[in-house]
Amino acid sequence: MTEVGNRHPHGTPCWVSLLAHSVEATQEFYSQLFGWEFHPGPHSLGPYVRATLGGKSVAGIGELPGDRHPPIAWTTYFAADDADKTAELIRICGGTVGVGPLDADDAGRLAVASDPMGAVFGVWQARHHRGTEVRGEPGTPVWNELITRDTSLVGTFYSAVFGLEADAVVSTDIDYVTLHLAGRPVGGIHGVGRALPRDRGAHWMTYFEVSDTDAAARQVLELGGSVIRTPRESEYGRLATVADPEGAVFTVIHSRPQPAGGTQ
What we know:
Pfam family, one: Glyoxalase_6
Domain VOC: 12-126, 140-255
Order of helices and strands: EEHEEEEHEEEEEHEEEEHEEE
Number of helices: 4
Structural class: alpha+beta
Protein name: VOC domain-containing protein
Strand order of the largest sheet: 3-4-5-2-6-9-8-7
CATH architecture of the largest domain: Roll
CATH class of the largest domain: Alpha Beta
C-alpha cells in the first residue's frame, strides 16, 4: 500500500467520482465489493459521500438530480494548481467546460469538462481535500485510461492542458499512448477506432485493484452488476471489465509487479 503525499502535482489523475441515481444503493454495492466505508461531504455538491479504506479517501459518490438522466459513469479528475486557469486552457485547446469552476465548500475547487472527442473528465484544485490518499491496496484506483477513437488529437490536448508527456507505443497492432508526469506513468490513452462503443463514445476508464479478479467478477454479478468482458490476462495483470447495477463501467485488476518504468 502506498500513501499519497500532501498534494498531487498538477496534471496527476487525483480522484475518481461517480454520480448515481441512488447513493444509498450504490454505497451498498461498492461497500460489499471493495470494503469501502463512507463519510458525508462536501455538502455544497448535494448528496455526496467520500469512500474510504482504513480512514483514507479513495473515491466519491454523489447523487444525480431526479430530472437528469446522463449515462452513469466514473469520472477521472486531474489535479490543477489553478482550476480557473486550467478551465480557460481547456477551452483554448478545443475542449468544453460543462460545470464550474466552482467551490466544493472548503474541500477544493472543481470543474467538469470534456476533451475534443467528448470524453468527460474533472479538474480538482485541492484545499482541505487532496484527493485519493492511498493506492495499491485492493479497493483503490490504480490506473486511468482514456478509451477514444485515436490518440493523436487528444494526446496533444492533455499534454497542452496538463503538461503531460505522451509516449506512443510503437506498434502496428495497437494505438496506445502512455501519459507521463515528471517521468512517471500516470495514465494511458487507447485508440480503438471503430470499436469505440456507440452508446458511450470516448470515455475515461477507472481501474480498481482487487486481490482476485475472477472472484471480484463473480461478486459483481451476485451484487446485481454485470460483466462486460470476462477475466483475462494482460501484460499488467489479470483484469475484467464490469458494471455496477446502475451501469457505471469500470475495470478490476489484480496487478502483477512491474519493473521500474512500467506503465502501471
